[in-house]
Each structure stands twice: as C-alpha cells, then as structure tokens.
Amino acid sequence: MELPQMKMTRILIPSLAPLALAVSGVASAGPSGYAPPPPPPDKQEFIVRVGASYVTPNSDRMTFVDSSLVFFDAFRATMDPEDEWGWNISGAWKATDHFSFELMYIDGDEHVGGNTHGFIELSGFDVDRIRNLAKFEPEMSTAMANWYPLDPSCMFQPYVGFGINYTDFGSESFRGIVREDLQDFGLRGRMSMGNSWGYTWQIGADFNFGHDSAWLVNVAALYLDSETDVRFDIIEDSTSPNPGRVVESYSGDYLYNPWVFNLSVGYKFAF
C-alpha cells in the first residue's frame, strides 16, 4: 500500500519543475526581467590629422670631393639650413585599444643656408663674401607603429611610435652671392640632392574635446634619420667659348636628420 507522503511527492515534482525553470530564467535575466545584451564588438578606429610642422634640420660639416676625376681635390664645407615651417597630413588605423599603424606626409618649406670654404678658393672667388650656398625643399613620408599606454576611455592619449621614413629633396639650387660670383667668371652652377631612406621615431599625444566628441588636437615631435648625396657642377654659360662644358664637379654626403614638431587637428571615426 502506497504511503500518502510518497504519493504527494510524485504529484508536486512535475508541477513545480516548470515554476523552478521560470524563476531561474527571471533571476538570470536581471532586475528588468530581460536578458542582458551581448558585449559590443571591438571597433577599429581611424584618425585623420592635418596641421602645421616646424622643421629643424641638422647643421653638418661636409667633405666635398672631385667627382669628375679631373682635379683630384677636395674641401670641407658647412651645410647650415635655417628652420622652416611646413604642413602635415596623416592617417592612423587603431586596430586595438593600445596599438595603431600610421602613415604621415610632411611637406617642409624651402630651406636656405650654408656657409662654405675651400670651394671658393679652388675657383678663385672671394671667400669672405660667400653666404647661403644652396636652397632646397624636403618632402618626408613616414610609416610608424604607435603604442598607447592609457585606457581608451581617457580623453588624454599619449603615444610613442617607431618606423621608417622616405625623404625626397627638391628645388635645389645655388643661392645669392654664389650665383653672382659664378656669373662674373662666365660660369653657372647646377646642384642636385638625392633621396633618403632611414628610421623614424616619435612621441605625441591626442587631446580629445570630450568622451563623445570625434574631434581632437594633436601634438607630436618626430626625429627622422636622413642622409643624402649633394652634387654640384660648375658649367660654362652661354657667353663662354664652350657653353655647357662642365668645368668642375663635386659631391658630398649631407646628414639632414631633422626634428619635426607637429601641431594638428584630428577627426576620428569607427566602423
């Protein structure tokens, strides 16, 4: 004969099972009774910056040698370009919260400067009157990986980066009194500078206008390792007996190695 207590247990268990499942579902859903949404997927952020650059090139004492193999002489000269302003544009892909890959282009303004000795002595000019040997205009492109140490929720985002740079030199020519002295002797000059590959590092920071703002201000300091070949020819001009004849040719290596200081405005967006 079945006991009343056992019979009651068999009746209550099937009846209470759906109620227990419902209670456990409500408890896991939270106070509102709805299941919490899944965490949002990681966003890949992009930052575009445009601004001004202050370029401070290196002053370098160079050795120029006779590249025409005619006179077999050499002399020392100084390239001392003045600091100039330029502009920059960059794009950064922030694949994670703490790392980004950045491409930057910097267009420097025309550098003018350089005192020289020896070249004028070889050519018979007045050494004391020589100033501003050459002018040139650099264009610098960089590719860098950057590390952001702070949490992405911070409105102040410092970073450090390391990468490579390509520097191209354009608009090269002699300046001022050098051209005048050459003309007095029935000569003219032709100058050229090559391009350069080197390493680059930077330190910078983004200042966001607010947690929900897409706009920011950026400051950064970059160092570019850049060395180029400087070559110039002394040529007889059209008034000479042999117009176009190269009288002397010289070449030397110039360590450009500039510091660049950027002040930019940026805009960030995500997909």
Automatic annotation (TrEMBL):
Keyword Calcium included in the entry's annotation: no
Record bears the keyword Signal: yes
Signal sequence segment? 1-29
Task: State the UniProt keywords alphabetically.
Answer: Signal
The protein's matches in InterPro entries, at most eight in alphabetical order, are given as: OMP/PagP_B-barrel, OMPW
Q: Give the matching SUPFAM superfamilies.
A: OMPA-like (SSF56925)
Query: What is the official name of this protein in its record?
Result: OmpW family protein
Organism listed in the record:
Microbulbifer taiwanensis
Taxonomy, top ranks, is: Bacteria, Pseudomonadati, Pseudomonadota, Gammaproteobacteria, Cellvibrionales
